[in-house]
Design goal:
- There is one protein chain.
- The chain is globular.
- Strands 1, 2, 3, 4, 5, 6 and 7 form a seven-stranded mixed β-sheet that branches.
- The longest helix is centred in the C-terminal third of the chain and has 19 residues, at 125-143.
- The protein has one domain: Nucleoside Triphosphate Pyrophosphohydrolase, CATH 3.90.79.10.
- The model has no long low-confidence stretch (mean pLDDT 89).
- Helix content is 27%, strand content 39%.
- It is α+β, with helices and mostly antiparallel strands.
Amino acid sequence: MFIVNVEGAIHRDGKWLMITRSEKEEHAAGCLSMVGGKCELEGVSSDILERTLKREIFEEVGIEVKDTTYVNSSLFVTDKGTHVIDVVFLCQDIAGEPYAKSAEEVGEVMWMTTEDILVYKEVPSYLKENMRRAEEVLLLKVENGGL
């Protein structure tokens, strides 16, 4: 079995919304991260990834996103041996100002450029790769007049 996790590469005005995960988190406590969370069992449904993403973003940082575009997916194993499929979406069309709404999950909220993220202290390699890919998807949308 595995967990399905979704994350939002939330972009506005040339910067990405990043969080530091709460020190109380079981996985990657205190680490720099995108906003997101696990899909929950809900029976037969559609658009579960997108709905989970929007719910988690609102629960954790209090904003709504409307425009979501698939970026990439990957598999990782937590320190406790749990297999996780991680799906990243580019998110735009943001309503509200983000804040650490859930102190149980979010330590700090910040806007960062791609370069800031890539040189941030102790950034996991998977986050660097996800941000590079999100930047590529964003640039393709700009080139195709999608913004």
